[in-house]
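Hello,

I think I submitted the zinc ion job twice by accident. Can you confirm which output corresponds to this input? Input:
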Amino acid sequence: MTWNPVLFVMIDGLRPDVRAAATLPALDGLIARGASTLRAQSTMPSITLPCHMTIFHSVPPARHGITSNNWQPMARPLPGLIEQAKAHDKRSIAIYNWEPLRDLSRPEILEFAWCRNAIYQADGDDILTDAVLQYLPNLQPDFAFIYLGTVDTAGHYYGWMSDGYLRQAERVDGCLARILAALPPSAHVLVHADHGGHDRSHGTDMPEDMTIPWVVAGPRIKQGHVITRAVSLLDTAPTLAALLDMPPHKEWEGTAVTEAFVQVTPET
Ligand SMILES: [Zn+2]
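Support: Only one job matched these inputs. Its output is below.
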């Protein structure tokens, strides 16, 4: 059987204007062969764990109830992307280097998880990429969540758009290049950030914190297309569900970015 993976690659804290200030050949290449918007929107509060709960469950923080980086059980639980994948016999894995992301899905849903809490070291994403290259081709999952956390750390340490932040973004673009090179041509890849940042922080509704790049590519995606519709974190799970040939969960509030698709997948 051929392997047709769907990857979601998160680059935490990557602002879209980094592209103009740094050299990012892997991200630029993905934009050239895919569909993208540099004006996608985070959700408030623009903080990593609330944003990721929104990404995976397609509801705003007011609905899932996680409003800080301290995880707690959802106020009104609903199935997320990985539960939906499991319900449709899809195999999912998660490879990440910020430990609080361990609860993005419920127990017994993931086939494999790898975590080394390594975002506080400059080579934390290089180490993570080594793990991706070690495990992804062997496990051949239907869906993989890959989280690269060091750009955000560099933002907090050096300041967003500072030289140290931009150089870390270039380093992580090299990680993205290594990951993309390990994929079969049939793969679909969605790359985006959870939030941006300003000075040495984020979490506000300022455009610098809220505006993120959102890029998808693969055989079923238009090439070189600039997405014109509004895109937010809520739309990620429905879009990934469409790429995985499964319907969105009925409680999800976002919509698949079908504008990016060569042809709209009929609802199943
Ligand atoms: Zn942060």
